[in-house]
Amino acid sequence: QVQLVESGGGLVQAGDSLRLSCAASGRTFSSYVMGWFRQAPGKEREFMAGINWSGSRAYYADSVKGRFTISRDNAQNTVYLQMNSLKPEDTAVYYCAASLSVGVPSTAGAYNHWGQGTQVTVSS
Question: Is the pLDDT of residue 88 over 90?
Answer without folding.
Answer: yes
